[in-house]
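job 3f2a | input accepted
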Amino acid sequence: MAILVNDSNFEEIVLNAKLPVLVDFWAEWCGPCKMMLPIVEEVSTEYEGKLIVAKVDVDSSPSTAARFGIRNIPTILFFKNGEVVDKQVGAAPKTSLVEKIKAVL
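job 3f2a | predicted structure (105 res):
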């Protein structure tokens, strides 16, 4: 299950994480975000213990979205040791996400 992250706990959960982190920047009204939801949940389950999967609602956490220059959603950022190491903008097939996940593990 993906962890809901916001402006107040982003640093603690994502930037200070010991594991790599996939962060899905999304919004309730976003159609492509809804298409990505089951894929993000699947990888959350499949990589449990190896990867943290987090979700940031850009409407309720605008500071975090602005900090990372999120202009289009869905945008998925991959963090390792507190740094962005890869990104996926727009809806993508699961295979694309899995390739990026394997590269950060």
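job 3f2a | The two ends are 19 Å apart (CA to CA).
job 3f2a | closed
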